[in-house]
Amino acid sequence: MIDLASWNLSVPVGSPPATIETSKLVDGFKDQYFNSESGTLFFWAPVTGSRTENAKFPRTELRETYSNGTLHNWLYSDADNLLRATLMVKQVPSSGKIVIGQIHAYNSQKPLVKVEYQYKESTQSGNIVAKVRMHPDDAEGRVINIAQNVKLDREFSYLIHLGRSGALSIAAAGYQWDTKISATWRDKPLYFKAGVYVQDNTGYKSEGGKVTFSKLDIDHNK
Fold first, then answer.
1. Which of 2, 79, 89, 108 is the most buried (most CB within 10 A)?
2. In this structure, which CATH number among 2.30.40.10, 3.90.1150.10, 2.60.40.150, 2.60.120.200 belongs to the domain 7-221?
């Protein structure tokens, strides 16, 4: 059973899109975009869904909180910070791209890390790509191909690990990449996100991203 006491949820309906509070998630919230009944987490984000402020694309995505529902933002130097997930991508939009995990920056439109599944019709499989901003003000993230040939409906795992020294490790589908981020991130409050953030906003309402998570866990080891 995945513990939902560390998250709230954005769903792509309403203006602005609705946020489902932590207590409601723990109590078993479900709708057409999210369901945790089976012990796994089901996410669906159509390309026609509503979008959060300043975002180009719709999302059905968890955002890190404390168990009382207040937002959990952290400085990387205060702990060993890990996001672990095991999941299966069931559907992608026509762009082929969905973001499945992030380290985001509080009050910023520029995340530190995005882990993205990129499907290609030509190979009938996808790559797991990390986009990493080495500095907070980088306009675009560095793009790293972590793993290849990950098919739809195939379970795989990823790990995002940011240590207190600034050492960053991203692993997916059995492969790993390591770097060290700039110390200019040290005073920037950060938080984890996970779910489906589709990188597409055109098409029919049946088009979008669909993912199931069988494991999802956050650790901040002091």
1. 89
2. 2.60.120.200
